Amino acid sequence: MAQLTEVTAGLAFPEGPIAMPDGSVILVEMFRPSLTRVLPDGTKQVIAEVPGGPNGAAVGPGGLVYICNNGARFFPVDMDGLTFPAGSGPDRYRGGSIDTVDINTGKVTTLYTHCDGIRLAAPNDLVFDTEGGFYFTDHGYSHERTATLTGIYYAKADGSMIKEVVFPAHEPNGIGLSPDGKILYWAETWTGRIMRRRVEGPGQLAEAGMVDTWQCLYGFPGFQLLDSLAVDADGNVCVATLVNGGISVISPEGELVDFFPTGDILTTNVCFGGPDLKTAYITVSGTGKLLKMPWKCAGAKLNYLNV
């Protein structure tokens, strides 16, 4: 097993970790639901309660934390000592949104709920570009025999513009940019695929045809489900892999070059921090823990965070 160290435990389905410059890690607890700061000694501090289902987080302009809120798409089910996310019915589900949190005051503001008149279903993860905008995935919502078909969006951080840039995408989850910002990557949970598109400008992606095989960086064999991801400075896509329980590393050339098991089949996210960005922080949500381990190279710098 990888050289893992437990940072803290007792988290209510942690996701969306952000390694802050002060050494703390800010993350969401989907089933609390809250935005929480974890100090280096493992102490937890709730920054804000975030109604719905906070699912992903990123630091944006002005130091605000932007949150993908799935609108309580899931509710917790405990099985065999692990917490699993089960689909919510219409009595719990409230519709998705993009929210912001002022980490100094705890103020929560809803920024987006719709795009072109269509309600966001379940925003999942996001990444900022250099131009004050961000790409985010909408994982979609399903209940009984009905499921929404969703995609990838681009929005401005000030709330002035949102548009769909990829449709359809099949339950898209984690999302990230290459170190040079020229390629957008995202993970599809149930297909087990890492997808990609070339970035031609802020919110402008290259078109992809039905038989454009380049757009699929890697497809996982067997029954492997994908969650959130981060990109390292070498351009590798480091994706949280469910069922197998760990972080899979896919090279920019589309090869599986490494796998780091965590011991939790619900390994959901990874980010990079520390003074040299060579510490990987990993959320393992089945057991409700934040782990860390040394990484062989630095993580890619994130806009508005690692400046």
Write a brief structural summary.
The protein is 0% helix and 53% strand. It is mainly β.
Find the count of extended strands (DSSP E, 2+ residues). Answer: 31
Shape assignment: globular
What is the CATH topology descriptor? Answer: Neuraminidase
What is the terminal separation in angstroms?
33 Å
Fraction of residues in H or I helices: under 10%
Number of contiguous helices:
0
Radius of gyration, CA atoms, in whole angstroms: 17 Å
**Largest sheet descriptor:** 5 strands, antiparallel
CATH architecture title = 6 Propeller
User: Which structural class best describes the helix and strand composition?
Assistant: mainly beta
Q: Would you identify the regions where 5 or more consecutive residues have pLDDT less than 50? A: none
For the record, the count of structural domains works out to: 1
Please, what is the CATH homologous superfamily? TolB, C-terminal domain
Work out the strand percent.
over 45%
CATH class: Mainly Beta
Q: What does this protein structure show overall?
A:
The protein has 307 residues and is an all-beta fold. The protein has a single domain (5-294), classed as TolB, C-terminal domain (Neuraminidase), CATH 2.120.10.30. It contains no helices and 31 strands. It has strands spanning 5-8, 14-19, 25-29, 34-38, 44-49, 54-59, 65-69, 74-79, 82-87, 97-101, 108-112, 114-115, 118-119, 123-128, 133-138, 142-143, 146-147, 150-156, 162-169, 172-177, 183-188, 193-201, 204-205, 216-219, 225-231, 237-242, 246-250, 256-261, 267-273, 279-284, 289-294. Strands 20, 21, 22, 23 and 24 form a 5-stranded antiparallel beta sheet that branches. A 4-stranded antiparallel beta sheet has the order 1-31-30-29, with no helix packed on it. Strands 2-3-4-5 form a 4-stranded antiparallel beta sheet, with no helix packed on it. Strand 8 and strand 9 form a beta hairpin. It starts with a strand and ends in a 13-residue tail after the last strand. InterPro entries: 6-blade_b-propeller_TolB-like, SGL, SMP-30, SMP-30/CGR1_Lactonase. Residues 13-285 form the SMP-30/Gluconolactonase/LRE-like region domain. It holds the Pfam family SGL.
